Amino acid sequence: MINTLAANSLSDAFDGLSVPLYGQLSSGDALVVAAIIHAVLVFHVFALCPFFLIWLERKGSGRIQDRLGPTRVGGRFGWLQSLADGIKLIQKEDLCPPVADAMLFRSAPYIVCLASFAAFVVLPFSHNWVAVSADCGLFILLSILSLEVFGIIMAGYSSGSKWSLFGGMREAAQMVSYEIPLAICALIPIVSAGSLNLGEIGDMQGGHLGNWFLFHDPFTFVAFFVFFVVLTAGCKRAPFDLAEAESELVGGFHTEYSGMRWSFFFMGEYASMFALCGVAAILFLGGWHTGIPGVDGLLQEWRLKGAESPEFSPLGYLANVIGAGVFVSKAAFGVFVQIWLRWTLPRLRIDQVMITCLKYFVPISCFLFLGATVWPLMWMFATDDGLTSAPFRSPLGNRATHAVSEGTKESSSTPQSSAPAEAPEDNSEAESAATGENTAMAEPITVGMNFSEVRQ
Amino acid sequence: MSLFFTIFALAACLGAVAVVISQSVVRMAFWLIVSLGSVAGLFFLADADFIGAAQLLIYVGGTLVLLVFGIMLTASGPYMKIPASPGETVVAGLIGVMFLSMVFSTLPASKEWKQSPNYIAETVTPEFADSSEGNTLRPLGFALLGVRPDVGQDGAGYLLPFEIASVHLLVVLIGAAYLARAKRRQDNA
Q: Which CATH number fits domain B1-82: 1.20.810.10, 3.40.50.300, 3.40.50.720, 1.20.120.1200?
């Protein structure tokens, strides 16, 4: 994985560029430096997310309840409220109840924090801005985030309190059920994308609004809303926050926790909210693309210029910074909607939560998945070459070979967002040819060629 | 590379030993996370990212959560313990040592372990040489669909095992649903 890290992100980015220190370090040292830079950057994103989002939650809940929310710390809007919270929490005594299983009780918050931190490692923030660009990035991200549940269950079990135990049991039952529709809904845009690499999925949706997978077909459109509700339940947010239902369970799984250990749970919760909303933004909402044709085309041109020039190009970098800003705003907006829901809707009962999942979301997501697989076949036309659906959408197998023929014809020309179906492949193809980075981008194409050969 | 290998390998082994030594079931589950998570880390180090993620999702996120959930539902006391009697310890220790010696005696005899470190990268066809960089997903997906471009036209895929496994899972799902329904009907009557 370390090789992957260096190969796919940093050394590719530095390849042939004039960067200070480049060439002075041996490859082993460069790997270590690259790993440290990535780790520090990702850690800061992970730490600043809850910092901002907790302030947003307090402010939002205040406004929704006709209060002002935090107003004093750090100026007019109470910007630094989270910092004040943090200082207060650090000063508190680190309690462990005598009946608790001390080892499990103390280690549970770290598991929660670690899991949601590790999810950021495969989350891309802009084109090629990702710590580890893995081919099955989405799968890794979902599997890492599923570890978070275990920390919460362990916290509930090891506290030695019945409220905590109930909270832990509810969380376990809820998560075991909600992971199924979450995974199925995440697969629906994958059927259209043909890749699990989050970076590739984001790059495919450039051009204009119609290229977002949200508007790809009716099934993905519905799937986005199902995914968002399931994701809210997956982060155990209201109205699905039965694990910490304070009206009936005191504090649920975190009843016995205090101080920093208590806050670790919430750092993990807010960070994983952000990570999952980021996944929703990449899968359905165009990732780091604005969706406005002129702006997206301009940014794409800047990126191409940056990729072509051997020197470090400020324009290409600026395009990526804007992309990261767009992505972060989309994800933060998703979190804001979750906050809005939390302070608007009443909490469900546990049986209602389970029924919503098992009787409604699982069948709905299965139906949507089936529909998304069948959809491309509805637009098949018989031509001399065989079946095609070229005017509308191309099914998975054809898409890669299509991209190859398109790419060889006009690999050097600058891509313009023309036809909705062709624009994304066109962009990525021309770009990968220009960057010379054939590891991630060109592989689906070779696979596609092989596949068609084998089929004949 | 070797530093991370040492860390993960040590964590996997020590976690496994701690699973055997500890007597509280949930602590065992915790140490099992450490052990299985480190094995997933070893898979990531070996550039097998799909199997590493699958290990995390299935064993840690699925099996262990179900295990602890089962304990929470069924245990009568606050912390369930399974103490081992001295006789059991001796017998289990003997069997463990026998297996360990068997593994140690067979490992050096195995041919593949003496191949060069780039054995996998050298044997696959050039189009799939990238699989050495941790991008194993597409070859795996095609192999499960019955196409093996990495070994050429003649290679057989795994479509039949894949279908058998999926039908098996469907049967299990229907069986579980049937059991749950039958139980509820008895309660009502």
A: 1.20.120.1200
Distance CA A211, CA A418 (A): 11
Nearest by CB to A3, from B47, B137, B142: name it. Answer: B47
Tens of pLDDT, residues B83-138: 778 888 899 889 989 998 998 888 777 666 555 555 555 555 555 444 445 567 77
Most confident of A19-28, A105-114, A395-404, B112-121: A105-114
DSSP conformational letter for A290: -
Rounded CA-CA distance A37/A29 in Å is 12
Model ipTM value = 0.79
- Choose from B130, B132, B140, B166 for mutation: most chain A CBs within 10 A: B130
Which 8-state DSSP code applies to residue A173? H
How far apart are the CA of A144 and the nearest CA of chain B, in angstroms? 7
Q: Locate tokens 């065992």: which residue?
A: B28
Q: Which of A233-237, A417-421, B95-99, B156-160 has the lowest mean pLDDT?
A: A417-421
Question: What backbone torsions phi and psi does residue A392 show, to the nearest 5 degrees?
Answer: -105, -90
* Best CA proximity match to A266, nearest among A248, A297, A286, A243: A243
CB A155 within 8 Å of CB A350: no
Q: Cis omega before residue A239 (within 30°)?
A: yes
Q: Can you give the residue ranges of every domain in chain A?
A: 97-375, 381-455
Chain A nearest C-alpha distance from B17 (Å): 17
Q: Is the pLDDT of residue A395 over 60?
A: no
Q: Show the DSSP H helices in A309-422 as ranges.
A: 314-342, 350-355, 362-374, 396-409
Are A154 and B60 an interchain contact pair (Cβ–Cβ within 8 Å)? no
Instruction: Please say whether the beta carbons of A4 and A133 come within 8 A.
Output: yes
CB-nearest partner of A451 from B69, B147, B153: B147
Which residue of A139, A169, A196 is in closest CB contact with B69? A169
Q: Please check whether residue A286 is in contact with residue A250, taking contact to mean a CB–CB distance below 8 angstroms.
A: no
Q: Which of residues 66-105 of A touch B (CB under 8 A)?
A: 99, 101, 103-104
Per-residue b/e over A115-130, b at no fewer than 16 CB within 10 Å?
A: bbbbbbbbbbbbbbbb
Per-domain residue ranges of chain B: 1-82, 84-114
Q: How confident is the model at residue B11 (pLDDT cuts 50, 70, 90)?
A: very high
DSSP per-residue letters across A320-346? HHHHHHHHHHHHHHHHHHHHHHHTTSP
